[in-house]
Write a structure and sequence with these properties.
By secondary structure, this protein is α/β, with parallel strands linked by helices. It has helices spanning about 50-55, 85-90, 110-120, 125-135, 155-165, 185-200, 210-215, and strands at about 1-15, 20-35, 35-40, 65-70, 75, 95, 170-175, 205, 220-225, 230. Helix content is about 30%, strand content about 30%. It has a 6-stranded mixed beta sheet with strand order 6-7-8-3-9-10, sandwiched between helices. A hairpin with a 4-residue loop joins strand 9 and strand 10. Helix 3 packs across helix 4 (about 125-135) and helix 3 (about 110-120) runs parallel beside helix 5. The two termini are about 20 Å apart. Bound molecules: adenosine-5'-triphosphate. Adenosine-5'-triphosphate (ATP) binds next to helix 1.
């Protein structure tokens, strides 16, 4: 089943003080089957984040379609779907992790992860247990669990962001440089979590500066320069 299909996607930005509209990216096409992981590569400023933000509908595309196979709504075009439907998808189906933490103020680190689970309909008891497991997995110092994250370091904010997105077991997860400010040990933890989600069937789109990190993890790579989508890892199926 095709989970995500980007067809002739393009996005322009208007720079108001220059009274100019400039294309950020155009003619982007790639597709993903359910459970696949595609890595997007391209030089700085080539439009990688713009693609991810448009899938999450933080940006509205100017051309093309972003076809997503929703569990709730069937196939929808994320370029034109209603705000209400998009809010539903963000809550239940599509996760987004960036380097920037954008959360409710005066909410503790642990409560933010609990809230993510409660949003999915988990009981308080399960949410409390799973939030502890997630924060432990990402080696968040227990001293920080009941603190507000506004004073957290870059790496702590990022690990909290990943914990909040991954506890929800999203159908589609968008990763915008999720290892940018992490040390090697934390990167390994992120990789383990991605592998776990893949095994559970999550479809992933990721941007990584660290190409080595993607190795053996991605099924496909989309290269913005060449506009080519390449299969890098064949899925091995065993016959019983
Ligand atoms: N909100 C915006 N307003 C105006 N221009 C923007 C906006 N967002 C992105 N751009 C421009 O669009 C182009 C693509 O930006 P984008 O952040 O998608 O690139 P990127 O490939 O993710 O870069 P990097 O690897 O450096 O993070 C850039 O030239 C950028 O300046």
């Amino acid at each position: 089943m095709t989970m995500l299909e980007i067809k002739d996607f393009g996005k322009r930005f208007t720079i108001h003080h220059l009274e100019k509209t400039m294309p950020a990216i155009e003619h982007i096409n790639f597709s993903l089957e359910a459970g696949e992981f595609i890595g997007i590569v391209g030089k700085s400023g080539s439009g990688k984040s713009t693609i991810l933000k448009s899938i999450y509908r933080s940006y509205l595309p100017d051309t093309g379609n972003i076809l997503y196979n929703s569990a709730r709504f069937g196939q929808v075009d994320l370029a034109t779907i209603s705000e209400r439907e998009m809010l539903y998808l963000r809550q239940y189906e599509i996760g987004y992790v960036s380097q920037f933490l954008n959360v409710m103020p005066r909410t503790t680190c642990r409560q933010l992860v609990i809230n993510a689970l409660l949003e999915m309909g988990e009981s308080e008891e399960v949410a409390l247990k799973e939030s502890g497991e997630a924060l432990t997995h990402f080696e968040m110092d227990p001293k920080l669990w009941d603190s507000y994250p506004n004073t957290f370091s870059g790496g702590e904010k990022l690990r909290l962001n990943i914990a909040m997105a991954t506890v929800k077991n999203p159908r589609l997860l968008l990763l915008d440089e999720p290892t940018a400010s992490l040390d090697q040990q934390s990167k390994v933890k992120v990789r383990e979590m991605i592998e776990k989600l893949k095994n559970k069937g999550t479809t992933l789109v990721g941007i990584f500066h660290d190409i080595e990190f993607m190795e053996g993890l991605c099924d496909k790579v989309y290269d913005i320069q060449s506009r080519l989508q390449t299969v890098v890892k064949e899925t091995i199926t065993y016959e019983s």
